[in-house]
């Protein structure tokens, strides 16, 4: 019994050391919008050392109060950290942070990894991947499914692709940010999967909105409609979460509409590339 206890103690203490080592990981974080701020805060709460940057530097203040360091430029953050995550609003912002003056490319080099969790198209991911790997760095794209609340709760779904060794090394961070991480293979697959997911969401939310309005205008209770949908096969967390606010005409942005529309547009372009006709998504985009 004593021997077993010793083995358990050794295993337990070594696994605690591993956890402590992982938690001490230093991570750079670029972009502190609705999503980025919540994600960086989660990393801090779980003991990671985090260095943050945002185009509007004042957005870093709250994170600094919670123990983060601040970089003046993306290049400065890359120089300081072995791993850097970015969470930016669109392809234009994602490219700008990498390629502009004082950008990621100025300091990325062998031994450093860059993880872009922004929602962009596959072409943008491939362009960033080529530039990062050209300098000897490693790249993973990791767009997420989930908006403000899942980001705050560490319940995002991470759709990663790219350098497998970098993915494996950053799993401790992904485990704090999300409830599940999928590794999807080559760069571009993460971006494509995210666009498909958001296309389904956009079409679904449009049908849901039309249903609520139709019920109301037909003299029915839209609250009763929510109850009926919730009890049937179409029940889902999104209807449950958004429906009550929509009925009250309250629309606090967890995911700004301009970004949803951008994703629908990119998904339709992906459809064109692959000769897939998507009339429902096209109507939802309009």
From TrEMBL:
One of its GO terms (cellular component) is cytoplasm. Gene3D superfamilies: N-(1-d-carboxylethyl)-l-norvaline Dehydrogenase, domain 2, NAD(P)-binding Rossmann-like Domain. Residues 26-185 form the 6-phosphogluconate dehydrogenase NADP-binding domain. Pfam families: NAD_binding_11, NAD_binding_2. GO terms for molecular function: glyoxylate reductase (NADPH) activity; NAD binding; NADP binding. Residues 188-285 form the 3-hydroxyisobutyrate dehydrogenase-like NAD-binding domain. The active site is at 194. Keywords: NAD, NADP, Oxidoreductase, Stress response. It catalyses: glycolate + NADP(+) = glyoxylate + NADPH + H(+); 4-hydroxybutanoate + NADP(+) = succinate semialdehyde + NADPH + H(+). Belongs to the HIBADH-related family. NP60 subfamily. Catalyzes the NADPH-dependent reduction of glyoxylate to glycolate as well as succinic semialdehyde (SSA) to gamma-hydroxybutyrate in vitro. May function in redox homeostasis and play a role in oxidative stress tolerance by detoxifying glyoxylate and SSA generated in glycolate metabolism and GABA metabolism, respectively. This is (rape) hypothetical protein.
